[in-house]
Design a protein that fits this description.
Layout: H1 6-9, E1 19-23, H2 27-33, H3 38-59, E2 63-70, H4 78-101, E3 104-109, H5 117-130, E4 136-144, H6 146-162, H7 173-177, E5 190-193, E6 212-215, H8 225-235
Parallel strand pairs: 1-2, 1-5, 2-4, 3-4, 5-6
Helix pairs in contact: 2-3, 3-4, 4-5
Amino acid sequence: MKSDSIQDAHPDLRNLPVHVAIIMDGNGRWARKKLMNRIKGHEHGSNAVREVVTASREIGIRFLTLYAFSTENWERPQSEVRALMALLKKFFTKERDELHSKDIRLNIIGQKHKLPSDVLYEVDKSLEMTRDNKSMTLSIALSYGAREELTQAFKNILLKIESRKIKPETITEELISGYLYTSGIPDPDLIIRTSGEYRLSNFLLWQAAYSEFYFTDTLWPDFTKKEFIHILNSFQTRDRRFGKVLCSTSNDG
């Protein structure tokens, strides 16, 4: 039997992606296949979250971003939204001590003020506990939508222009990036989406300009450390040119 340990997989630790982002998709379909309620899929999906966070910390991934709840998800049936909020509250309450012990800093991107007050309390408590940790940053996208993020950034920049704190000619890509929820975090080197879907679903549209993508048919609750390492190995074989053409060193003319 093939071992799924990190050591046996031999990832090249000198060529790891600095930032990995994951669109965690397929909880509902996983539950449907097993004739379960959709919420059971979300519950089992939390096990995959724990496994990937632990693996990322062990391997040496510096930034991990997980797409947990989009701005569009608020339109789901209220019973499902309430259940998801309860799961989020449970996650932050249960996992923050473990995150802190592993020197992982928690970060939230999105409109966290829209979360129910009891969930927001646990989120803020977790953020405060882990704020000085340095080994890895775990960003969780909650009530997040890339178009909303960009719209808000442009509004804030416009306000600075109107108050003459910014001149239009000084606007650069770097300045715009500084007004996003991900300010201070490098753009993702690798974006993974599970469940066989091939779209970004309003996730990190600005930041994904030169990201590598990996799409897997695996439903999120079935996603394992073994597959994660396989994807990292695949990333390490890619030739990232960022739109440039590498000059040949041959003398062929």
